[in-house]
């Protein structure tokens, strides 16, 4: 493994376990793992660009709606940040430094740009993790205004939000869905998107592996990610490491699912047999 990539992973783990993990820092460290050429200079350039954009927002705005409109005017209309269906087919759409460069991306990455630019300018802003579509919220619950950065910052009515949720889940919008998204939940959702992108492209198991491994560095993560990592290691020919990971996963699930644990151990034995 490239030593520089290892350093980025260590920094990612330290930031994820800090008292107040920063979404932008984690996104850029993730980007450095994905693209080692980014380096510290590229990370610094991304922060400078976010500062520059924040400086272009009007000074002294009050109220949720003026902030939402100002962000949409700057980022959506003037700077051209938005998304479209083809962006779901590009890994770059999940990498913050590439989204800042291309001004295109997935809803959650565009939302990170909206949130960070507006936050640096003093706006009351936060992410809203609606099922299937991440958006941005401005202001307190009683005066909340939602904006959709994927649609260039279009302001959403209550009916718009209900349609988004119904389209993704078939269920009605719940007030709890409008709560500010926690930083690590945002990062896990980004990594889930990357894993889904890679899963549709078996030739990019390298991307799937680092996305799983970064997910495992988060303080809280689904235990099944260990099984996914083990499968990827075996798929990539690292049979011993994959078998060891399978055994560790079996140890985790055995107390509650002994049959599953035995099945996983059989897979571990099969992986080791591939070396013979």
TrEMBL record:
<dbReference type="Pfam" id="PF13369">
    <property type="entry name" value="Transglut_core2"/>
</dbReference>
<feature type="domain" description="Protein SirB1 N-terminal">
    <location>
        <begin position="70"/>
        <end position="192"/>
    </location>
</feature>
<dbReference type="InterPro" id="IPR032698">
    <property type="entry name" value="SirB1_N"/>
</dbReference>
<dbReference type="Pfam" id="PF13371">
    <property type="entry name" value="TPR_9"/>
</dbReference>
<protein>
    <submittedName>
        <fullName>Transglutaminase-like domain-containing protein</fullName>
    </submittedName>
</protein>
<comment type="similarity">
    <text>Belongs to the UPF0162 family.</text>
</comment>
